[in-house]
Amino acid sequence: MEKENFMQIASNFYDAVQDQDNASKPNSKDLSFVASCMIPTRTRAEVDLLYSDCERRLEIIKSIHDYVSGTDSGLATEIWNSVQIAAFWAFLFTISLQQLVDIEIFLRNSSSPDGSQLLTRLYRLQVDVNQIERMLNTFFAMSSMNKQVPLNMHVNRDRNVVKQPTYSTMAWRPHRVLKPLAIARRSMSMASARRMASPNPQWLQSVFDDCAAAPKLFAWTPANVSSRTQAQSQTRASGSLVPTASEKTRRIFVLGVGNLGVLFATSLAKLAPRPPITLVVHRKELLEQWASDPSLKISRNGVSERMTGFDIEWWTDQKPDHGVVKHVADGGAIPNLLVTTKASAALPEIDRLRRYLDENSVVAFAQNGMCKLWPPHGHAYNSHRYASRPPPSWLACVTTHGVTSRGRYTSEHASVADLKIGSVLSGPQGGASSTYLAEQLARAPFLHGQQVLRADLWTLQLEKLVVNCIINPLTALLRCKNGYLFEKTEGPLMRLIDVLLAEASAVLQHVIQHPSTDTILDDARNTTSVIDRQMLLERFSQTRLKQMLLVVGHKVRDNTSSMLQDVRAGRQTEIQDFNGWLVDMAAFLDPGLDTSNHELLIELVENGVDVDETSIEVTSQF
Fold this sequence. Notes:
Elements: H1 3-19, H2 28-36, H3 44-69, H4 73-79, H5 83-91, H6 97-109, H7 115-123, H8 129-144, E1 154-156, E2 161-163, H9 179-197, H10 202-209, E3 218-220, H11 245-250, E4 252-255, H12 259-268, E5 277-281, H13 284-292, E6 296-300, E7 303-307, E8 311-316, E9 336-339, H14 343-352, E10 362-365, H15 378-385, E11 393-399, E12 402-405, E13 410-415, E14 419-425, H16 432-443, E15 449-451, H17 454-478, H18 492-513, H19 518-525, H20 533-539, H21 542-555, H22 562-569, H23 575-589, H24 596-606
Helix pairs in contact: 1-5, 1-8, 1-9, 2-3, 3-6, 5-7, 8-9, 17-18, 17-19, 17-21, 17-22, 17-24, 18-23, 23-24
Domain Ketopantoate reductase N-terminal: 252-423
Pfam family, one: ApbA
Family: Belongs to the ketopantoate reductase family.
């Protein structure tokens, strides 16, 4: 963390606290809530621990305050009332209790402590600057946005997560029109400044910074987990023990066996002839669960179907203790890989598998949000990771099916819709091999799949991204079904949707105009696609996006968004792959683009806030 950032964040925090009247100053519960927002896994035990030591923290703070105030006035002014002590206070609820005690001892044992010594000691604790920013943004979003309402946080012990009660007058004021929110935005703008320092999004910069060799991975089966299952696992469930060349090229690996994984795998299994299918799970325990009932279950219209005949593996760098030891794809290349993980896990998993991907491999992404390998970043990724050899062919799927979990390896196909499959970036051998996987997905029963042109797929993903950027976070914040967002054609909620759409439209207009889009439009000109740049600019105007959103919103009005399901289950959401994509793309294309309301959505969702519609007040027009 840069010292300048440290000081600026501390100053923001200090200013905000000074702005509050005494009745609104935070108490121990308020501060423990703010601190708990920085815990990635907000378990009940962790929250209870914060409560248990919060009073002790405040006692130590008072002790330090009394000690400093009892020294000469110059030292008191320098430490307690300066930016340094503001930095100290900002860190009091992000460091451990023992670290806090150590600082108290340091101050008492120092013959002449000064502000710079204190700042240096705090700085060396190396607390992540992002933690402080999350604390600040939560603090402002929940309290300072309306100073008439004092903080009053509590723990919802039934849900085992920290929860903020709904305020009746919480104000949502976009475009920096309220001073306390403007202070919070300053910390957001610092995050934007750091993004500007590197033109690459964080995921791509992480790839560039990683110089390690691709790991060797073992393919565990149930036989490697339990000796009881060893005998039954000596033969493949789909295909022969020693697969033929044809079986190898036809095999489809399904990475991620959540709701979409179950839908895709069971649909592919109904093809004739049935392709060999290997399910790939992310934890060893899932292999053990599979051994007790090696099947997938899916229900439609109240009728459940149990399907068997799947192979299953867990890919890890840990060598099995017993059973047959084998590597991923028998040490060769994966022919067909369908990625049905959460969006945040998709590319990291694929990047980890790059040792087993070559020019004959085909990878199809089936996530919400934009595939990260579209221009402008896909070629940069390929050039870095496949500098000495040809890359695989990258496909993407856009699906509108609604699938709900009914237990491990069990799903309900609640809303039957369709699937679009197309190319993102083709490898040198992308013709026949990529056609096979796309054809299987297009032919599979219940998926209603269709192969589409590259430009059409890109456009469909952008439109679905806009839908996800509006419906998912707003339903997560309002704790409502999708249709509730569109019940009123006027009012503060619809005005907020208009503002969010205007920000999204501005970013996407820049995307369409960017030179990297030329390759997509060039492909369209060489096909039967009617897409061109002017048509796209009109299609992604704010007016057209709203028309599209209202149509989709009506179709999915009875559904519960995936983000609200994640929030209720205490899982990580995909908001960084929805609204975060817009924010990152804006920083890449033009730092002057305003995505402040999408940034605030990210902060509120990630901090578990819920609001009431009556609390939304939009005071500016787009």
